[in-house]
Design a protein that fits this description.
heterodimer, A: mainly alpha, B: mainly alpha
Chain lengths: 80, 276
């Protein structure tokens, strides 16, 4: 650990929309009769791969978070 | 509105098709933009686009004349009407794609199995009356009691009039280069022809196939070859029915000793020429 709290780490994480959502929007707007060429198919497959990886990473993190035992904090959170 | 939907005025889409596209777009926009849903949507688009490319390549004339929608769902609901049209074209002109467990509208064809053309000797009950004479004769090596009973009834031949049958066949039986009809018959019954349409059964179907030109062409070629095997058996049926004693002796001799009478080769060559 580099001394940052979990909350700080979370806040500093980069935010991005899953690439499959962006590609879905792009595909929605194109005419299906304009067939995708090989390069476009390859690009889509790469994006799908990255999208799936991101989905799996988040899923694993959520699972790990759910398995984490409850831990008492030394400080009372604001408002309690 | 049309600009917002990405529908340029110059697009040559019919009103009907533009409407279908708009409905598709709006129903997508109305759903939650969940990454999993987007992933499934993009996968479906890529899959359909690959099939459109295959359609255009394999059936260019039909593609250019087609009025089937690229957006509306077809009989197989996971695919557009146009992709459904491709399925039917392949089913009619290449091989029976839709006959085997594909009559469910929710079927997926991303990877598909093919229906076995051979008799299922694994778990199914064998109805000898429905078999070709030659096929029934070949079963004396696998189901001797039932096969001899059938042959006795059909051709008036009894097991005692023939030599004992070895438990294992002579290695020549598996030699595809011999070009003999008897060998072809025995390999067909053994489900070891090398042809996926003939070597699979309902317990253990052939591989799952994917959508690419090479696979479709290969399955088409093998389907034609499988039907030719059955056509050639017609010749053997005639020979067995004409002289059952002689032909069954030849078959048993081939199984036991791997020897073929020259006549078998000659007759097959003649038949081949006839077919061609």
């Amino acid at each position: 650990m580099d001394g940052r709290s979990p909350l700080e780490i979370l806040i500093e994480e980069g935010e991005q929309i899953n690439p499959a959502i962006l590609l879905a929007e792009e595909f929605m707007r194109r005419d299906a009769a304009d067939l995708l060429v090989a390069e476009e198919i390859q690009r889509a497959e790469e994006i799908l791969y990255n999208a799936r990886t991101e989905i799996d990473v988040i899923r694993r993190q959520v699972t790990a978070f759910e398995r984490s035992p409850a831990h008492p904090s030394p400080e009372l959170p604001l408002g309690f | 509105m049309s600009a917002a939907l990405g529908l340029a005025i110059s697009h040559p889409l019919s009103f009907d098709e533009r409407l279908s596209k708009s409905i598709e777009y709006l129903s997508y926009k109305a759903r939650s933009h969940d990454a999993n849903a987007a992933y499934d949507y993009v996968s479906a688009i890529v899959s359909e686009q690959q099939k459109y490319a295959l359609y255009k390549e394999m059936f260019p004339k039909e593609w250019s004349c087609s009025r089937a929608s690229l957006y509306r769902r077809g009989q197989y609901e996971k695919y557009s009407e146009r992709v459904n049209e491709l399925f039917h074209l392949i089913n009619e002109r290449c091989f029976p794609l839709l006959e085997f467990a594909h009559d469910d509208p929710e079927s997926e064809f991303e990877h598909f199995a093919i229906p076995p053309l051979n008799v299922d000797l694994c778990c199914e009950e064998i109805y000898f009356d429905n078999l070709r004479t030659s096929y029934a004769a070949g079963l004396i090596f696998y189901f001797p009691d039932e096969a001899w009973e059938f042959l006795n009834e059909r051709l008036k031949v009894s097991r005692g009039a023939f030599p004992e049958i070895n438990s294992d066949p002579h290695p020549n039986v598996w030699n595809r280069k011999s070009g003999s009809l008897l060998g072809e018959l025995l390999r067909l019954i053994d489900h070891s022809t090398g042809n996926p349409w003939l070597d699979s059964n309902y317990c253990q179907t052939a591989d799952w196939y994917s959508w690419d030109r090479e696979t479709i062409d290969e399955l088409t070629k093998e389907f034609k070859a499988a039907n030719e095997v059955f056509e050639r058996l017609g010749c053997l049926d005639e020979q067995i029915e004409a002289d059952p004693k002689k032909m069954l002796s030849a078959l048993i001799n081939f199984w036991n000793n791997g020897r073929l009478p020259d006549q078998r080769r000659v007759k097959r060559k003649r038949r081949w020429r006839k077919i061609q």
